Each structure stands twice: as C-alpha cells, then as structure tokens.
Model the fold of this input.
Amino acid sequence: MTNSSYQRFHFGLRSLFCLLLLAATFAVHARTTDPLPSWNKGPAKSAIMQFVNAVTKKGGADFVPTAERIATFDNDGTLWCELPMYVQLAFALDRVKAAAPEHPDWKTTEPFKSVLANDMKGLMASGEHGLLELITATHTGMSVEEFNQIAKYWLTQSKHPKFNRPYTELVYQPMLELLAYLRDHGFKTYIVSGGGVEFMRPWTEKIYGVPPEQVIGSTIKTKFELLDGKPVLMRLPEVDFIDDKEGKPVGIQKFIGRRPIAAFGNSDGDLQMLQWATATNAPHFALLVHHTDAEREYAYGRESAFGRLDKALAEAQQKGWTVVDMKKDWKQVFPGK
Amino acid sequence: MTNSSYQRFHFGLRSLFCLLLLAATFAVHARTTDPLPSWNKGPAKSAIMQFVNAVTKKGGADFVPTAERIATFDNDGTLWCELPMYVQLAFALDRVKAAAPEHPDWKTTEPFKSVLANDMKGLMASGEHGLLELITATHTGMSVEEFNQIAKYWLTQSKHPKFNRPYTELVYQPMLELLAYLRDHGFKTYIVSGGGVEFMRPWTEKIYGVPPEQVIGSTIKTKFELLDGKPVLMRLPEVDFIDDKEGKPVGIQKFIGRRPIAAFGNSDGDLQMLQWATATNAPHFALLVHHTDAEREYAYGRESAFGRLDKALAEAQQKGWTVVDMKKDWKQVFPGK
Done:
C-alpha cells in the first residue's frame, strides 16, 4: 500500500466508522426516546401510537396526506381542568364582583345577586337566561382587543381554588405531549371548545402551541365601527354561535371545511364531534378522557351533572373508541409537579 | 510536496472550486429569477417586493415573525374574473334552469320567472328578497358534501361567455404568482370573500394553493343530523353570515383571530378589510386591483354599479395604498394564453 492509498483507505475507514456511530446513535435515540413519557404503557397509549404510525407510513394502506391530518381537541376537561367550574365561568364571576360597585342594582337583581352572594345554586336557578345576562354583562360592550387584554390579565392573576396554581398550569401534561407528538407527525391541531373563542386565543399558542386561527369556540356577534376614524371590532350583547354538542361538527365544517381524522373529548358535549370524525371509511381516531383520579385531579363524568359522559362512553364501547382512564393511563397529570 | 500532501492540496483546491462555482450559480439564479414574471416593472410591483423584503429581513426594523404573516385576498375581481356576473350567480341561474321542470310554479313566480326568461333586470328588481329566494332554492336543502359535489361538477362543465374558458382558468396569473411569492416568504394566504365559503372550498386548493381552512366567506346555517344513524350536515334555508363590507373584518377576526398584515381587494366591498389591515403601527400593506383593461379583460370600477370602488380608490390615494392598473401593471392577465 502506498502512502497515499493507505491514507485514502484510512480516511474511508474513519468515515465509515463515523457513519456507523451516527446511525447507532440515532437507532438508540429512536428506541429510547418516548414521545409520550407521561403516558403509562397500556391500550390507550398503544392505540394512539398505532394510529399515528398507520396514517404517516408512506405507501401504507392507511396513509393520509399531511394536508388532511386534522386533529380536533375539546378544551375544558380534555386539555385543562374544568372543575370545580369552567375557568371562563370563574372569570365571569370575578368580573361581576369587580364591577359591582358601579352597579348598585346588582345587589337585588338576578343573576348578579346570587353571584355576589357566592350562591351558585341561585345562579343556576336563573337558568339559561341568567347565564346569558352574566355573559352579556362581563363579556360584551368592549372591543375585541380590550376583551383579549382583560382575559389575559385575569389569567395571570387567578389561581385554582384546590391546586393553588394558575389555571394555565392546570393543563394536562399527557395531552401537551400528545399535541406535540401529533404536530411532529404533520398534524394540524385545533381546539374545538364550547368556551368563548376570544377567551382562549390570547394564551393557547403559548400554552398548547395552538395558534389563534386554529381555535374554534363559541362566539358573540361583533360589529365593525370607526371610532374617531380608527376601526374597531365591538363585542355586541348577542350570541352568534354556540360551539357545543351538535354545534361542534357545524363549527368544524364552518371553520376548517374538512373532516378531522382524529377527535379528542371528555364529555357528552363532545359526542357529536367524535361521531362526525369517525363517520367515514377513511382512517380515523376518537378518544375520550375519563376523569377517574380523585386524588391527583377529580373523579367524575358518569353520575355528576358536571361533564356527563354516559352517552359518549356507551358509544365508545360500542364503536371501539379509545377511552383514557386518567388514574391508570397517566403517569403525571399536570406539568412540573 | 509529497505525494499525499499534494493530493490533499489538490483535493482542497477542487472542493474550493466546486463551492465557488455553486455560489456563483446561486447568485446568478437569484439575480435572474423574477418571482413575479407577469408583473411589469412599476410602482405596484416595487411596492409589493419592498414590503415582502422589509417584513422578512431578520433583524430589520420591520421584521414580522412568520406566524404573524397573514395575507387576506378578496376573490371575485381580485383573484378571478367577476364579469359579466359573479360566477356564483351564474351557478345559481343554471341551477334554477336545470331544476325548473320539477317546479312548474316558477314560470309565474319571481325571481324564478325572470331567471327563466333571462331577464336580469327583472331579477334585480326582485331585490334582496328575490336574491335570498334564489340562494335558498339553489344552495340549500342538501348536505354540505352534496353541495360541494354539485359546485365542483358545475365548474368543470361551465364556460365564461366572453372568453369561452372554464371559470377556474380565468384566474389572474399575476395574482397566482403573488400568492406563491408570499407563501414562499412564510405568509399564510387566506381568501376573504363575499361569496359562499362552500362554493369556493372544493377548488381553491388546486387553483390558488389555498386550503379549505384558509377560505373565509359568506355562510348559510347548517344542522348536524343523524340520517339512518349516519351523521350529516344539512344546509338550511337561512343565512348565517355575510362576509362583505363591514363583515370582512368581522369574518377575519372570527376565523383567524389575528389582524392581517397585508390585504388585497378590488372594490368598495373590500374597503373595510383594507382599513382593518392597515389600522396599526406595525408593518402593513394594502392593494387594490383596478380593472382598466377592456381589451384583455374588462374596464370598470368607477362608474359602473358593478364592483364600485370610488370610496376605496379615494382612500387608497389618501393613505398611500398600492393601486394596480391592470392594463399597465400586468404583462399577462390569465394563465396559459
């Protein structure tokens, strides 16, 4: 072997060695890096990963092009904690209390009287009409930008009564991992919530990685106006759209215009969204989060008036949808602690 | 120089030479490839390119993060030909004629009587109420999927009366280039049209590269129903939202939840969208297409009742928005020919 041919040989050998090392590193990495570390091994985790593998396998029978990989998530109870009451309801109650000094009549007028007396039963007794008055008084009469600021600020100032942490920390760690896992595999992740869209948009990008244009929710009517020549969108005291139950597929079609291939919920309010996502011969996936963990979070869903999922659970069993047993399936519930 | 050191030197020299060649190739490529070849040199083309350069220049004073690069485009008259009548109106008239045998009463009932007699003046005389009846009769009473199929099929079968080409070929080549140019620079391109959203969605992805979830338009109400256990979304005979004039900023906020940084229109119906996009201290861009080319397309916009843009043109002059003079600024109007 001449000097130069030895050198070439040596160089080639070294390159080959480097390549092999690199390949080995990747292989080990792939084998050891779990994209869903807060999920315990079990049927729920397996079903998720099998579905994602199937729809992303090029040339596979169930392959779905990236553009069609739409996943829709309910928010309250699916991505963040919804007990002891919807976060947006806590916001409305706080807003009433803050504005009460300017409205002396509220002391004697429902539903405000009940709110100020912390009488939740009284509030509920005021029915849909009372709830609408509450929303009107606390969520309308300002511009969209002003409302976004109010909601965002309130969230930085408020804490959950049981966990004593900001609400935006009481998001489910396993679901954060699931959102990221789906996006890493070319999915577009959407929120489809009964909650107000403008209550969610100011923080969903930071907390969930879901940008404002991928948040679908209930809306109130807005009006374009020129105030001193400057355009504003004013929030009117009128409901535009309720994105719950039968409204969820309606909202999905209106905003996305495609059928999701995966849908995630936790209550009967999500049933129609799951029915819609799965009513196709194309690949699809449906998952329900069942809150079974009284210790780390709450156990509810079957009997309680709150977040009923009788019908959805029955249909899940019948149709083979995936049901998460929070206590069993989640290694960790909230981030950080 | 030893044999091996010469070889190393030679190898190094060759690598350097290859790199230089590559760099030179890219430089020439960058200098000669015009991203907007159908635009003539002039103030409109320059303004577009200056804006895109400014908002994409990292570290520049006007840099805008990718996530916020939202561009909204009107459709009729901005992206495709809107004369002698809106394409969707031509669709409705054809649908009435096709369904007429099943509706003998239409021969004597407005607005159908006028439609069947090709009496456009009579149709217009039936006013908003007549137009609503026309839409109800031709656009509702079927599922969303059925309607999408009907609209898609009609577009493959119909031709423009003057140009004798399918409507989907009568899109503006310079605007197709502009859409692609913006997307190549990280923009998300949206359609914000007064037209029906479900009339556009079946073809906007193929023709414009705009996916269904980035199409905002007028909507009619839909209802989620189980037909023989199978979920469908039925189109109801009721208007949900008119995405025109003051409705455009409302629709933009409802669907996107962010203010666009660039907006493109061609009539007074787009004025509020342009006002909304530009009412900010952040970088912004507004453009109006002025139809000045009676030979290659049509010349209209100032006096004609159709596509008025008196107010928008006046405001464009006052605020320095870009105005495209179709005859001067566009080298080519439609693709291919």
